[in-house]
Amino acid sequence: MNDNEILQHLKDEAREDLDFYSNLGKEKRERWVVSEFLRVIKHPFKETEIKSLEQSSKVDVRFVDANFQIKEITNPNTLRGKRVKDTYNSIKSIQSLNDLQLPSIVEDVPAVAKIYDLIVTQTETLSDIGKYEKSKKELDLIFYITRTRASLIEEEEINTSDFSGLGWRSVICLNGRQAVVLYASEEAPRYIQACSGRVIDIDNH
């Protein structure tokens, strides 16, 4: 690959990132989270079966009998959107790799935390929001973790009583290394129930 090809590849990646992390890319990101979860737990699916619903719906993504409400846990005060936009703007018009100057953005370093504790706290907070009061018993809540300095979930941490009284049909975690079903009620889809309490390592799938 020569310099021109490398530069074009970088431009294409920057454009794809801009589209993916834009407001218009929200539905695509949510569908990706669902497809990745299904892939890791080895549940068969077709991409056409993973469908975004209208913004007014309590369901973000529907897959057959699953109704996913998707929440991302990021670094506090994250500037990802600005970083992606600035990167694209800095690279889109340059003619040579020698002209490449990526922007430097300083972000706060988050305190060390446990992913499990973050999810318990977020689930409790969401449970108190009125708009989910009537629908959460039919929702499969899935957290996608992009926060750094957060320790992975250990199976011995999982306590279904942390979630069973909050009213959700199931509570799921997906991070860069794991897929974990933290809680699944008897009404949750069977393939979600089958994974309850298990930590599935993405590196092995």
Any chance you could write out the topology, listing elements then pairs?
Layout: H1 3-20, H2 26-40, E1 50-52, E2 61-63, E3 66-73, H3 80-91, E4 113-114, H4 115-127, E5 140-145, E6 150-151, H5 161-164, E7 170-174, E8 178-184, H6 190-193, E9 199-201
Parallel strand pairs: 3-5, 4-6, 5-7
Antiparallel strand pairs: 1-2, 2-3, 7-8, 8-9
Helix pairs in contact: 1-3
Structure in words:
The chain has 205 residues and is an alpha/beta fold. The chain is built from 6 helices and 9 strands; from the N terminus they run H-H-E-E-E-H-E-H-E-E-H-E-E-H-E. It has helices at 3-20, 26-40, 80-91, 115-127, 161-164, 190-193, and strands spanning 50-52, 61-63, 66-73, 113-114, 140-145, 150-151, 170-174, 178-184, 199-201. The strands form 2 sheets. Strands 1-2-3-5-7-8-9 form a 7-stranded mixed β-sheet, with helices on both faces. A two-stranded parallel ribbon has the order 4-6. Strand 1 (50-52) and strand 2 form a beta hairpin. Helix 1 (3-20) runs antiparallel to helix 3 (80-91). It starts with a helix and ends with a strand.
Short descriptors:
205 residues, alpha/beta, seven-stranded mixed sheet, two-stranded parallel ribbon, 9 strands, 19% strand, globular
- Please state roughly what percent of the residues sit in beta strands, choosing from under 5%, 5-15%, 15-25%, 25-35%, 35-45% or over 45%: 15-25%
Shape: globular
| C-alpha Rg (nearest Å) | 19 Å
Mean pLDDT: 89
Strand order of the largest sheet: 1-2-3-5-7-8-9
Distance between the termini: 30 Å
Structural class: alpha/beta
Please summarize the sheet with the most strands.
7 strands, mixed
- By DSSP, the count of extended strands is 9
SSE pattern: HHEEEHEHEEHEEHE
Helical residues, percent: 25-40%
User: What is the helix tally?
Assistant: 6
Query: Uncertain regions: pLDDT < 50 for 5+ in a row?
Result: none
